[in-house]
Every structure is written in C-alpha cells, then in structure tokens.
Amino acid sequence: MRLAEFQRGFQDAILGPVLTATDGDLGIRRGPEACRHHGHACSHYRIAIHRDHFWTRMHDFVAYRYPLVSRVLGDAELTALVRAYIAARPPAAFTVRGIVEALPAFLAERAPWASSPILADLAAFDFRRSGVRLIAEEPTVTAAALVALPAGVLARTRLRLKRRTLLTTTRYRFEVSRIRDLPRDAALDDEPTHWLVYIARRACISQPVSPRVYAALQRLAGPVAVGELLVDLRGLGFSAAGCEIILDRLVDHDLVVALPARSES
C-alpha cells in the first residue's frame, strides 16, 4: 500500500460517521491484538483506538475554547457539532486555535445552527473570551504607587490595560452567568453590547459596559500619558470626579499597567 493510499484510507476511517475499515484494510497487521478475521471485533482494535482518541481530542479542543457554547448546547449536541465541523473542515493546523477558530463561521452557515444566529455571535465572543486565559499575567500598578509620584511625573506616566484583558462587542445581548438559558430565537439587538473581559482571582469576569465607558477603555488599549488620558475622558463627557472614579476602579481591579514617564524634551 502506498503512503498516499494509507493516508487517505486512514483519514476516511477516522472521519467517517461509522467505523467500517478494519486494521487489515489499512495494512495494520502487527501486534498480538491483530486479527485477520474481518468480522471479528478485534479486527478494528487499533484503528478504533486512534479514532476514539481523535474525536475525544477534537471534542476537548472545542469545549476548551468555547466553554459558553458548550454549556448552551449540552454534551450530545456539542458532539454532533464537533463531528459536523471536523468532517467539513478536517484539521490542517497543529494548534488548538488553528483547528477550532473557524467554528463561529461554521455555525453561521450550517443547519440547524444557522437558524439561530445568536449562536455564531456567542461563539465569536466565546473564542476571544477564552483566549484571555492563555495570556500571561503581568505586574499591575497600585493606587499607592501612583499617589507617591510627583504631580509632574504622574501626568507624564503612561498607563494601559494589562494584556490579560479584552475589549469586544457582540450584536446580541446575553447574560454570561445565565448562559444555559440563552434564547436561541433572540432577535438582533438595536444597539451592540460592549464588554470588558478580564481575569480576577482565577475567574473570568465578563462585564457589559456602556458605550462611553467602552470608549474610555479603548483609550487605554495602548499606552497613554495620564495627563492626556484625563483630557480625553473629559472630552467624552466625564466630570473630574468621573475620571477619578474610572481610574480608581481600574487600578483597584488590577487592570492597569504603568510605564515610566517619558522625559521632558
């Protein structure tokens, strides 16, 4: 048997809805468990191990990067989704991300899931949200450290959100804490929902925020001097007290990294 023939046969045996190929069909004849009798249960022994391992891994990959979708669908429907997705898009990547990142697009176009557009929107959010856990933590600034800085230095000190945060938007409204009650027939919202996602005490916090707060947080997506930030926040309509409240809350929740002030030229 040529290598190409073996590879095609092996893939067909793994991806097929029912395992029909035997070890002998694939040229797997070595080992004490090999059986030459086509109808014997042992005739599928080795290929069945590979097949079960493959589908277990694919199921785990999807459940790992789409925990909210997994809760909505339940194990039986998730298994059906994984099998349909992988059969339509056999893995060509070597990473979990590369294998499962196209699932939202698949949900949007494949029946029966395409009849509930909220599932694709949730999956896109879920994938980005689960990615936050994969980012390394970094030291954040404390309120005491900022207060200790001279006023001139503080104004030039640059702040940004830590990398282990996510700013994202969904087109449908849902409650993460009640995701099992997701209404599959939900209509598209008139306004998008803006989210701040971060890790706190090993828990993933998904917080809806107002458009104005979201715009303020976007300003902190990259390093910005405190003085410039306060001007921008006032431009968004925040009072001086409102600016202080936003910064205090972000610092208190360990969401802000401070970078050294740039020297005055």
Could you explain the architecture of this structure?
With 265 residues, the chain is mainly alpha-helical. It has two domains: 3-132, no CATH class; 143-259, Outer Surface Protein A, domain 3 (Alpha-Beta Complex). 48% of the residues lie in helices and 12% in strands. It is built from eleven helices and six strands. It has helices at residues 3-15, 45-65, 67-88, 96-100, 103-109, 117-132, 143-147, 151-156, 211-219, 226-235, 240-252, and strands at residues 158-161, 165-170, 193-200, 203-209, 224-225, 256-259. The radius of gyration is 26 Å and the shape is elongated. The mean pLDDT is 86.
The number of distinct helices, counting runs of at least 4 residues, comes to: 11
Query: How would you sum up the global shape?
Result: elongated
Uncertain stretches:
none
Q: What's the arrangement of strands in the largest beta sheet?
A: 5-1-6
Number of domains: 2
DSSP strand count:
6
Beta-strand level of the residues, as a percent range? Answer: 5-15%
Q: Give the topology string: H per helix, E per strand.
A: HHHHHHHHEEEEHEHHE
What does the largest sheet look like? Answer: 3 strands, antiparallel
pLDDT averaged residue by residue? 86
Structural class: mainly alpha
Radius of gyration: 26 Å
How far is the N terminus from the C terminus? 73 Å
Q: Can you give the helix content as a percent range?
A: 40-55%
